[in-house]
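Bug: token stream looks shifted between consecutive jobs. Job 1:
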Amino acid sequence: MAVRKPLKNDAGNVKEMSPTEINQIIDQIVYQYSLNPSVILTVVGSGGNLGTIEDTRLQAGTVSTSVSSFPSEATTQEPQTVTVSYSKIDQTSPITTPISDTGKTWPVYYTSGGHIQAMSLQDVKDTFLHPAVDQLISASTTTQQAGTYYISTSASVAGATEVSGTATPIFLDTQADTTAYTAGTIGDHALDNPTTVTSYYLQRINGSNTSYSVPFYINTQNNLQEYDPSTFQSLVQEWIRHTASTSTDGYRISYSLGVSGLGNTRGSGIANTILTGSGNYQTRFVNTDDYRAQEFPDGTSTTSSTYYLRINKS
């Protein structure tokens, strides 16, 4: 591993950058990534390749009837489980083609012998690109993770952009609405009467353009020259995008969604809750030839599973 100290212009003098200044360039690289991420999550209607997660809830058992007396609780159907599957997050990585390293592409540094030399691509990875990826995959959700994603229970969050653009949840945690079931409407109400407990949304973290010292490079006349800021920013954006999506050094970014997995949890866990009662037996007398009974959902709310969005490097 070779972490270099790039050279900069210090009031007309050539000076090595401090660790703080190197970190400022890393922050700028993260910002550049946020402008055009290369590992992209989108919200789709169904069939997302990040996997399927399930919401479960109870619905009423079927109505039992008799022409002579109320069907007993032992003969009525227990509340049944309804399962709704969600696969609304899709992950893609477009092809990236960064600028080739010519041997003079990157910032310069002092060698141990006091000579000025251009950084190699491996130097750039060790000094800038890999530390930037380490910031991006942190469990935090600040501007130092800009361009990456997390789960929120709110459609509108300061410092982030809701990915669908239309406040579309990627998951709804629902339960039976126990107030929708009454003895007086047995046979008239729907078996399934859900109410939404929590909605979950996919957010992308917004970037923050940070100041940094522009380094020197060796121009075509073999002289030291400061990068044009836009040229340097384009250069590092191409390479951080390429690193994040195609790295073979263990710095390729990917996401997963599930109960377990590798990487850092991003944002809120996605809870699937359900009522755990054994059934609320109720009867309805309609007339002398129509006796009805039914078991309604009841009980306390329990979390049956929790899913997490995770970010990882590999």
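Job 2, same session, no restart:
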Amino acid sequence: MAALHVAKEAVAMAGWNEGERENAALIVGTSRGNAAGWLDPWPGRRPFKLMAASNTIHSEPATAVSIELGILGENHVVASGCSAGLDALGLAKLLLDSGSVERVLVVAVDLPLVPKLLDNYSASGLLGTSTELDPFSADTDGFTPGEGAAAIALSAGFGKIVLSHFSNNSDGADPVGVPKDGGRTHLLLEKAISRFGEPAAICPHSTGTRIQARAERKIFENAARNPATTFHLLKPYFGHTVGASGLLESVILVRFMQDSRLPPNLPGRTPPSGWQFPDEAILCRGPVFKLAHGMGGHNALAVFQRTS
């Protein structure tokens, strides 16, 4: 199970002992839990009769991690669609900041590569026709689906990197789409900029759907984007991992930032006029904003900073 695999790795890297694991909180972000295990079972996706009931509920990955690793503290499952992974990380920050827990294991997972789920995305006009994802090109017409899982074991931060800020809001506009004017994401950006200054870099959601590309252009126009800000698109590397994407991309950002770097874009991506898409790793010179958007206009923003 992907969630269990990355959870074990994160806890091992953190060096938590049995007592620390027992009192830690667990937060899992996912859009559909282990739905693939019962929609289209196949070897490797636990197609056992014993798991038939549990595989139909979103909390199944959290239960498996809790049992396997002995994590018995607060237990939460966040299912806010494509924002779930970033929301899970944000909830972890809130718990740590409140002092209610000392440690949080954050896990995000989504396994959408089964025919029934892909048919649903296709019927909604969300799947792209090309495997070469170029989210802002004139030809972009949908996202490239991918499967993924990520985990972070948190106490105070990520070593040299801290999660300085998290916020989210809702557009309340459409069950599937994003408002043409970009919605209320610009309010999240304005709040973060007022606290931390202009971002050195932004990792946008950038799925590749036409409506997402149009909305993101408006979002940064509404927030009076700084021309010096660089953009770092990660979905072209591994596709859109749905509810796992926010945490997976945050893990990649943090790892680069630990070395004072920012990840390169795949060469050949098409930036809107005035935007910077560096195709080589560059130095990280300030706060980094990570955005995520879920169906129905759920918007999330995290701010990462180096401490030294």
